[in-house]
Amino acid sequence: MTTYAIGDLQGCHAEFLALLERLAFDPARDRLWLVGDLVNRGPESLTCLREVMALGDAAQVVLGNHDLHLLAVARGGADLKSKDTLAAILEAPDSGILLDWLQSRPLLLVEGEWAMAHAGLLPQWPLSQAIELAREVERRLSSDTGGTFLERMYGNEPSRWRDDLDGIERLRFIVNAFTRMRFLDAEGRLDFSAKEGLDSAPAGFAPWFTFPRSDDPRILFGHWAALQGRTPGSRVRAEALDTGCVWGGSLTALNLTTGERVSEPRHSHQS
């Protein structure tokens, strides 16, 4: 059995199938870990969602910010954005089944020494605490008040973690840390203004993976295509997997046993 971790699909279905063929992936034998953002901005979000769901237990998925945006549009009253490619999912006859499945995915997956979250792990959270905080959000999403939470999920505040945060502010920060984090300052404050490469960091901020942790998990993350799969200056064991397929880059898989990376180039550029 081989486990492969794969970066953000974002609707790049043709590249996903080509990558699985290059890996000789067999769902009866192998497993996939998908780092979130299965949907949006690419041409085949509906097909990607159906494909991954059909893999059953062979595919483990964590929620990304685009996945949560889809849920917020469908069940929390958020508006579609001009560049969204989510309409086909919302209009599909199996939309309810797909959305139920997606809403039941976790924010954090931990197995052995590996931990996978869409944007990474906040340095201030030991892994044991990160697991508990992720479960808080997951319980809310699966509850009768999941739609209400999705309505109030968006926002950039609070920008810094405190153990005494409660209510929607607590849940919002947890979601933001797991799905939107890129740059932090020395006090653990999140910045949401910079979304490009390392040279876009605001004064006093640095990539989250350049801050030390009190423990040493091997962290799998996506979300940050501008890194091009690299983590320069990292002080933790982090693997960046989003290599920007939807932006004309490639879709990348990491063999968790050997450390080998295999990438499938974008078949047709979409801006």
TrEMBL record:
- Coiled-coil-forming residues are none
Keyword Hydrolase among UniProt keywords: yes
Q: What EC number(s) does this enzyme carry?
A: 3.6.1.41
Q: Which InterPro entries match?
A: ApaH, Calcineurin-like_PHP, Metallo-depent_PP-like
What gene name does this entry carry?
apaH
What range(s) does the Calcineurin-like phosphoesterase domain occupy?
A: 1-76
Please indicate if the UniProt record lists Repeat as a keyword. no
List the protein's name.
Bis(5'-nucleosyl)-tetraphosphatase, symmetrical
Q: Which UniProt keywords apply?
A: Hydrolase
Role according to the record: Hydrolyzes diadenosine 5',5'''-P1,P4-tetraphosphate to yield ADP.
